[in-house]
Design brief:
Radius of gyration: 28 Å
CATH architecture of the largest domain: 3-Layer(aba) Sandwich
Number of strands: 30
Number of domains: 5
Distance between the termini: 58 Å
Strand order of the largest sheet: 11-12-10-13-14-9-15
Bound molecules: adenosine-5'-triphosphate, zinc ion
Shape: globular
Number of helices: 20
């Protein structure tokens, strides 16, 4: 008689393994008593890892003698609910990615590392009323005196938690205990996420807004699953629509998840939410400390935060009462993660909304082509808001032909004149250039030598303030050469412009106008972006210079002129999405102009004023341009008329990536039949980066099912190829970049 195979627990561990691992329950417990969603400590080889139970009470194909028990349980109740576990499993399947790594993306850092679920909230300290650092009791305790002074500086009116005290030099805890004993400091225990104040002013919705709100969530109980595209021109008041929808969701007892682009979660936006809703709002963004993130996440997971607002990874937050999902600026590329688990937060959000019977709103002035396509095919409901809210009018757009014109550091005389006029009239001007640094190229005037990154084969960007050359592809940095290494001529010349040069030129040209630059270089420090955006509103800086960071959803009421320095970068790019991106970018950057009473003007410098895309966009607007691009995509058999997956490979040697992909293609081809095209392998559009040669193989199918079938069957074969050991390879399902 064979003994029945033991019941086991399946655990996802943070390792690049396709499957979860099988374990026996800890001694004294039945496998079925360990709930999925609980964290456990397990041994893998010699390592001890924190894993997440994804299944329990099932049987294993592994011989009982070879199974190890789980070492210990870290949670009493599941940390991750069944629905979120379902989402994790779906993401692992759909993106063909190791499930343990999906879990890593889904959990906040502390919880991933096994930190406890701290239900008590957090401890905070405030100075006792009248406490004075100069009090005689502290005369001989200098450090305690300093800490009390520090607390008072942070604000005597409220208590401050560890997060705020972290900046105090040295170990503050024993000092705080001493102060407490002296009665100079009072300890408080508080929930880690306090309700926001609410009670702020609200707009009376205009008819277009009312129609959108009622169409998406009719008064009353939760309407259930459905995807709604809210296509509203820039400044049409989409945020106000979201707020009203959230109000309805909350009234129906449901939670709302709001996803925003990477740099869209600004203090202004948060303030708008906090002044509208007197509830705990969990804001998940990169500026959070580990403790704050855990708190926000746990509060949401317990259903105690009715609103969760965050960037892409917030899509994994457990939300037991989810009723509404808002994806703001749904076309934004930052919703797609570009490394490791290459998921699209919008697509996962829709999947989970379907599971939980939630409404989805995709909001944008420039919807992604796949979203528009779904709306036109009737899969998504489509709502329009064609006019700006309040008194604001649409901006006027004009092309400035820069062919055969003398440019002053990239600026035409016409643009400079327009800037001068606006400044004289007291307006604010925004100049957009999607290239940071001083100049993209440093060239020797003697022999034509160009400073190149030896690891990427591309020109290095000259950064004047730092006096460095930086590679924007691999972050390599070098000192500025004083002379050409080839011919010895001194002072190589910067060629072309970046935002840093623009800032310098404008400051010299308009010495009385303050210039504020916003790009990745000026906002590296935590909190710097928020400070600079605040400064935009202060009115101190009439001239704003920036990259894409300045274009996303910001509301700058005083900006009346927007200048686009170079529209041509996107016109001839090899990427099949370049035109879509350019159209979105131009409309979004133009959308920053004239958002209040003053009308806005947009001037676009281009050397291709006859380009059909620019003409259609300016004459007929984004929907017409989108139609034209969709027609091109249909003809080329590209998304949304096809489904793609991209296999990428890289290695130090030139031959290995192509060899692996050729072997991969050979392994996949017999199974691809006539349903999946294998295009390539070819060297990547950027054939070398950070010292590694790169190549790619594109898989294309008319429908999703055969593509995913091929991937499910094929990837294990690729794992086993001998060529796979000489490369680093990855799969990108629904890639947004083909390089
Ligand atoms: N019904 C209304 N009446 C008056 N003003 C309104 C109304 N709705 C919104 N506004 C104002 O219009 C401005 C633009 O609104 P909002 O920022 O929501 O636009 P948006 O559609 O999100 O724009 P974008 O796509 O450019 O981010 C804001 O200052 C907002 O306060
Ligand atoms: Zn480089």
């Amino acid at each position: 008689m064979t003994s029945p195979s033991p019941r086991i627990i399946r655990v996802a561990v943070p390792l690049p393994l396709r499957e979860a691992l099988d374990y026996l329950p800890p001694s004294g417990k039945a496998a079925s008593a360990v709930s999925p969603g609980v964290r456990v400590l397990v041994r893998v080889g010699q390592r001890r890892l924190v894993g997440l139970v994804v299944e329990s009470g099932v049987s294993s194909v592994i011989a009982p003698g070879r199974l190890r028990p789980v070492q210990s349980l870290l949670d009493e109740a599941p940390l991750v609910d069944a629905q979120t576990l379902g989402l994790i499993r779906f993401a692992a399947d759909y993106y063909h990615h190791p499930i343990g790594e999906v879990v890593m993306n889904a959990l906040p850092g502390l919880l991933r590392e096994g930190a406890p679920v701290d239900a008590a909230g957090e401890t905070a300290w405030r100075a006792a009323p009248g406490a004075d650092p100069a009090a005689p009791g502290l005369a001989r305790a200098m450090r305690q005196r300093e800490l009390l002074g520090y607390l008072l500086e942070l604000g005597a009116d409220r208590a401050h938690a560890a997060e705020a005290l972290a900046a105090f030099p040295g170990d503050w805890r024993p000092l705080m205990r001493a102060l407490e004993e002296k009665g100079l400091v009072v300890r408080e225990q508080r929930p880690c996420l306090a309700p926001s104040p609410g009670g702020g002013e609200r707009h009376v919705l205009n008819p277009a807004q009312v129609e959108a709100v009622d169409g998406i969530w009719p008064q009353g109980p939760a309407p259930g699953f459905g995807v709604h595209l809210l296509e509203g021109v820039t400044g049409s008041g989409k945020t106000e629509v979201y707020l009203s929808l959230i109000e309805r969701a909350l009234a129906a007892g449901r939670q709302a998840l709001v996803l925003v682009p990477e740099i869209g979660l600004t203090p202004q936006l948060l303030a708008r939410f906090r002044s509208r809703f007197a509830v705990p709002i969990a804001a998940l963004h990169s500026g959070l400390g580990d403790g704050e993130r855990r708190c926000a996440w746990l509060t949401a997971a317990r259903g105690a935060a009715p609103i969760v607002i965050g960037t892409r990874s917030a899509v994994f937050t457990p939300l037991p009462h989810l009723g509404l999902v808002v994806v703001d600026e749904e076309h934004d590329a930052s919703f797609k993660q570009q490394e490791n688990l290459r998921y699209h937060a919008r697509d996962l959000a829709i999947w989970r909304a379907r599971q939980q019977g939630a409404r989805v709103v995709l909001g944008s002035a420039t919807p992604a082509l796949e979203t528009l396509h779904h709306a036109r095919e009737g899969r998504y409901a489509h709502h329009h808001m064609l006019a700006r809210a309040g008194a604001a009018r649409p901006p006027t757009l004009r092309l400035l032909d820069v062919r055969h014109k003398r440019l002053d550091s990239g600026l035409s005389a016409q643009l400079l004149a327009a800037v001068g006029e606006r400044l004289a009239a007291g307006g604010q001007v925004l100049l957009f250039l999607n290239r940071r640094g001083f100049a993209p190229v440093l060239i020797c005037q003697g022999c034509g030598w160009v400073a190149r990154c030896p690891r990427c084969d591309t020109p290095m960007t000259y950064h004047a303030q730092a006096r460095r050359l930086r590679c924007h592809h691999c972050d390599r940095e070098t000192r500025l050469p004083e002379a050409c290494p080839e011919c010895g001529q001194v002072d190589p010349m910067p060629l072309g412009q970046g935002t840093e040069r623009l800032e310098t030129v404008l400051a010299a040209r308009f010495p009385d106008a303050g210039v504020l630059r916003i790009d990745r270089d000026t906002t590296r420090r935590r909190g710097a972006l928020a400070e600079r955006l605040e400064a935009v509103h202060s009115g101190e800086y009439p001239l704003l210079v920036g990259t894409q960071m300045l274009t996303k959803g910001h509301h700058f009421p005083s900006v009346t002129l927007v200048g686009v320095i170079d529209a041509d970068q996107g016109l001839y790019s090899v990427d099949y999405r370049a035109h879509e991106r350019l159209a979105q970018l131009l409309v979004q950057v133009a959308g920053r102009a004239g958002r209040a009473e003053q009308p806005g003007e947009v001037l676009i410098q281009t050397g291709q004023p006859e380009h059909p895309l620019l003409i259609t966009l300016l004459r007929d607007g984004y929907p017409a341009a989108a139609d034209a691009i969709l027609a091109e995509r249909r003809a080329a058999g590209m998304p949304p008329f096809a489904h793609l997956a991209l296999l990428r490979a890289e290695a130090p040697g030139e031959a290995a990536p192509m060899a692996f992909l050729a072997a991969a293609a050979a392994a996949l081809r017999p199974r691809a039949a006539r349903t999946v095209d294998l295009l390539g392998p070819v060297p990547a559009p950027m054939p070398r980066r950070a010292g590694r040669h790169r190549a790619q193989l594109l898989l294309r199918a008319r429908s999703r099912a055969p593509l995913h079938r091929l991937l499910s069957e094929g990837l294990p074969l690729l794992d086993a190829l001998p060529e796979a050991r000489r490369v680093r390879w990855s799969l990108d399902v629904d890639p947004v970049d083909l390089y």
